[in-house]
UniProtKB/TrEMBL annotation:
It comes from Struthidea cinerea. GO terms for molecular function: GTPase activator activity; metal ion binding. This is RGAP1 protein. Pfam families: RhoGAP (PF00620). Keywords: Metal-binding, Zinc. Residues 55-246 form the Rho-GAP domain. Residues 1-42 form the Phorbol-ester/DAG-type domain.
Length: 260
């Protein structure tokens, strides 16, 4: 076990480094000692009708491009429809209980999502999007490419830094790359709204830990302290890349994703 998870039989957490048993059909995870109590029949997880409670981004992405999860598209659409006049968008927290409830609803629904128009507070929708991205098994920039993103953002020369970042972005798994492009175009629009008062610096502080994260699932306290300012720098540099670069990944299909 790399990332501690609860046992599907007894419910207690299986700790880091311990050996566990996992069903290749339904993905049930359990302690080796709980194997005898495991139900003999399992139900394979459906591929298109429900999402896992947690997973990597590709687990939530559609099968055709652009590979942006429906949950992300729906949250962004709702924010752009009625949130671009809200001060402190993404910085002001939504009610925690409502954020958890709506995230659970959307994850249970899978592909056919309930309408977010019934959520009165747009900050709750922002909270659902951030919580979904934070809850992934690895950050959007992935564990393996995390050091490369940090190095590219640290290059003092702006042009050289941009070139390095473009190269690293192109190495991302397709779903991560498309979703990052989709989010960057969205955050660029948020930064351009005078009512939101959320410039690139503010947005990078909010989304640095969410999108960039750390290079492992269990970072040391020292790594957390060292990574935080560099995470913000990565997002600020990504937001400085021209929208035309990001549109190259989501293309004209983006007009089908979010109303202009």
């Amino acid at each position: 076990v790399i990332r501690p998870e609860p046992c599907g039989v007894c419910g207690s957490r299986i700790r880091f480094g311990k050996t566990a048993v996992k069903c290749c059909q339904c993905q049930l995870l359990l302690h080796t000692k709980c194997r005898e109590q495991c139900p003999s029949l399992c139900v394979p997880r459906p591929h298109h009708h429900a999402w896992p409670r947690e997973g990597v981004l590709a687990d939530f992405a559609p099968s055709t491009p652009p590979l942006v999860p429906t949950l992300v598209v729906q949250c962004v659409t709702e924010v752009e429809t009625r949130g671009l006049t809200e001060t402190g968008l993404y910085r002001v927290p939504g009610a925690e209980q409502l954020v958890r409830e709506w995230k659970r609803k959307l994850l249970r629904a899978g592909g056919a999502l309930p309408a977010l128009s019934s959520v009165t507070d747009i900050h709750v929708v922002c909270g659902v999007l951030k919580d979904f991205l934070r809850g992934l098994k690895e950050p959007l920039v992935t564990f393996s490419l995390h050091p490369a993103f940090l190095r590219a953002a640290d290059i003092p020369d702006d042009a050289a830094s941009d070139t390095a970042l473009r190269h690293v972005v192109s190495k991302l798994p397709p779903a991560n790359r498309d979703t990052l492009a989709f989010l960057m175009l969205h955050l660029f629009r948020v930064s351009q709204s005078p009512d939101c008062k959320m410039d690139v610096l503010n947005l990078s502080r909010v989304f640095g830990p969410t999108l960039v994260g750390h290079s492992s699932a269990n970072p040391t306290p020292l790594a957390i302290m060292e990574d935080t300012p560099r995470q913000c720098k990565v997002v600020a540099r990504l937001l400085s890349l021209p929208p035309s670069f990001w549109r190259g990944f989501v293309g004209t299909e983006q007009e089908n994703l979010v109303p202009i």
